[in-house]
Every structure is written in C-alpha cells, then in structure tokens.
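User: Here's a chain of 570 residues. Predict its fold as tokens.
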Amino acid sequence: MNPNREKNRIRFIFFCFLFFALVLCLKLYFIQIIHGSEFVDKADRQYVSPLNNLFDRGGIFFQNRDGSLLGAASLSTGYNLAINPQKITDPVLIYESLSKILSLDPDWFYFKASQKKSVYQKIAERVPEELMKKVEILKIPGLQIQKERWRFYPGETLAAQTLGFVGYDGDNLVGRYGLEKYYEDVLLRKNNQAYVNFFAEIFSNIKQTISADFQKEGEIITTIEPMVQTFLEKKVSEISEKYTSKLTGGIIIDPNTGEIYGMALAPSFNLNKFGEEKDLSIFNNPLISGLYEMGSIIKPLTMAAGLDSGVVTAETKYTDTGSLTLDTYTIYNYDKKAHGTINMQEVLNQSLNIGASFVVSKMGKDNFADYMRRYGLDEETGIDLPNENHGRLENLNSPRDIEYATASFGQGISMTPIETVRALSVLANGGKLIVPHIVKRINYTSGLFNNISYINEAKQVLKKETSEEISRMLTVVVDKALANGKVKLPNYSVAAKTGTAQIAKPGGGYYDDRWLHSFFGYFPSYQPRFLIFLYTVEPQGIDFASQTLTNPFVETVKFLINYYNIVPDR
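Assistant: Prediction complete.
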C-alpha cells in the first residue's frame, strides 16, 4: 500500500470532518446568536396559534454623541385574548373573573359570548404579559391566548416625519413614509416560517443563510442624535406657536460629511397613534419634498459665484440706487432706499437686492445660471428618504434679464430645504457638494455590517479660497450687522445670513402680506462642525426673518457648543 496515498486519504477525511464541524458551528451561531430571539418565540408557542406568524421587523436606532444607541423604532409584545362562544357555558361567571384583571366592557363581552355560531371572538388586544399570566391561572374553558408583536416608537413624536411608520398595504404590513419605507428591503423580515425541529433547522436549508434576501435583512443606525433632535423640535415648535406659522422646519447637518443630526417639523404627530390623524398630509416631509422661494439666504450663493468667477471681491464697489428696472419690471431693496456707493461686504450686511443683481450683471447670465446648477439646486440630493423633490430653475433658461436679477436674491426660483442646505454647505466645507444622509450604518442579520459614507462622492464646485472668503464675509455679517452685532459670540466665529421671501400666488405674482422667513449659519466659521437651517412659512404679525429666527438660531448654536464641548476658535 502506498504510504503517501494513505496520508492523503487521512487528510481528506480530516478536512471533510473539519468542514462539517465549521458548517455546524456556523449554523449553531446563526440559530443561537443571530436568530436566538426567534427560537424563544417558537418555544413560547403555547401562547400562540400554530398558524400565526409573529410580526417581525428590523430595528431603527438613534445614536448618542458617545456612540451608544437609542431605540427609535422597535417591537413591542403583548397578547390578544379571544373566546370560543360554543364552549362558554357561564358568561356571567367568566366576565366577573376576567373583569378583576382586565378592563372589559360588559355589554361588549356578553355580545361576543352570544355569537354561538362562531368559534373565535376577540375580547381584548395587546394585553401586557403580567396581566395575561393572571388570566392563564384562571384556566377558563374556551379561552384562547395569542401572542402579538407590533411596531413601537419609544420617542412617540421624535423625528416622526423622518422615521415614518409601518402600516397595511393590502394584507401586508410594510414601511410607509420615511426611513421605514426607504429601507424596506433591509427592515422587512421574510423568514417568518412555522416551527421546525431544532436539529432539522441545523442541517436544513443552509442555502437560506447565504440567500440575497437574508443578506439584505438587518437594522439601521441613523445619524440622528436624540438630544439634538429633541432640542431642534422644541425650537421649531416654539417658533410656530409664537408666530402662528403655517409650517416651521429645521435641519442640523455636518456640512463636511452630510450627516444629519436633527431634522424637525412643526406641526408633527405621534407615531404610535398615526391612525388618529385626520389630515394625512402631516405624514409628508416638506423638508425634502416642499418647494419654496428661499429669499435672501441665496445671496451668499450669488456672492460666492461672483467671487469664484473673479468678477468681484469683498471690496468691489457699486452705486446702489435702491431700484432697478429690467424688461419693464422694477425690483427694489427691501427698504426701497438707495444706499449710495458701497462694497460687496455691505451687500451682505444690509441684504441688498440691487447689490446681488449687480453681481449677476458682472458675471453674465449664463455663468450665473451655471453656478446655480452646480450648487445642485435643480436636482435631487440623493438623501435616503422617499419622495424627494427637486428645485425649479426654469426661469434661468429665459433670455430676460429680470429672471436672473430676481434669482440672485432667491425669488423666481424654488428649491427644497434639503437642496438649500446642501448648496449652503458648499460655502462652509471648502467648496464641495455633499450628499446629505440619515443612515450611517447597517447591521445585517448575517453578522456583517456596512458603514455608510459619501465623502468620496463630494464634488468640488467652488475653489477652497472662495469658501474661505465667503465664510469670512458671513462672519462679518454676524459680528457687525446681525442685530447690530449684539448676538456676536466673543469666543466663537459664526457665519450666517437671514432670508425673507415673498410667497408666490398660484396664478402669478406675489402676496403682499405673506412671507417665508429663513435663516442659515455655520460654526466655527472656518472649520465648521454644524450648519443650522431654519425656516417658517407665513408667520403672523412680523415682517423679517431677522426678527423671528435670529434668537432661535443663536440659542441652537449655544446649545451645540455646550452639548459637544466645542473648543473656542477665537
């Protein structure tokens, strides 16, 4: 006998056993660790009808500043209680026994018990486990107990429009709105099969472990920081209530990475009681789908385009006459006053429409339009939320000078808040067009994970030097012009700008008494950690964004400085 052949045979057998052991260990890992909770449920089937598959879905998590996770969307467990009327011989006695444990309406119970042609009548839903154990002890004939799981949102209203919720689509529970819908393929669980013998589970259907659906299933970790989200929601609610606004919203983003720390709207709703809402439009997210003429917060984008193309500097001067007539239309400064010979810094300080129009006249219409498109104001941002809309820049295809002049100060063109935030981030981050996003990590049920980053996808649309110069100019706005310099922070540089826009009428023209107020800013000015965007639609009794949004913005800056222990930069 050939000794080498025998050694090879022994090695082959050894590797076969080793492979078998590895497969067995792998399968045990999936059963005991990855799917342990599922087998606990299967072991608990004395509570559950054998044909009833428990609802299952991947979790959604917020992430605290220290990296710890907080449940945003999870599963809650309870029990349904039903009776078989054909086995109920003494409904009065049974009601008296159950009513000592559960809150049951007597008329409803007796009606259910009287349905003698039926074998199943539900009398209570989502009963807590501690109460159900007391019911079990009664051992009532004809009583049926079924375990139930449902989607639960611990924060209730927290980030409601961002998270979305789970609802019925026909006979199936699926994600509706928000992250629940966008990440449906990750959160959905397709393997709710009935009980299988434990050892059969080990050796059967290994192919499922590496199936495409299985590999996609997981849970998602968001960029939303719960304390930041809570603070932002409080601020937008205060603004909306104080000024009786139609709608108020806010976004806090890292302008370098596109990670969104907070995204808030008022009015909002309770995710655990969404079925009680009568106005279904409240489920939509106008931060990504609403189109608005943003007004003067667009002026820094116009000024940056002028700086970048080399046609103006901060010291370039022009003569401000207070009004300008183009194509038979006349535009004015907000105060309808002439300001004489002033430079570009003063255009931003005083928020002058005629000054922004001057920049466009120096650039040329085509060059200006090209920059506005490079900012991504007519395209979707790619944010990981459903139903995103994109801006409308059709007026920048017109041969008329007036369209470009009004666009220079944010009228006549419309955009979504998230598009606006992305464009304004270009000013803060060295000139790059980022991808805003909500999810930073997916943990798959297979044990693998995907850390999500879009930094390498950022496009350079302005020179770095332009970003630095416009940041300097916007810092001067805060230090000297905003509230006459009273909100300047001595130890921190902050770059910011307000915006007040007329609201367009559906048939053309603008309302004289309806306004959109907006405000954006970032800090520290030259190495920004955060960009804050606020807007409020049709605030009552006040004309300018500097009056409605300055204090909420400054309060948000101070909160972030203290919460994240931001080091002073000056």
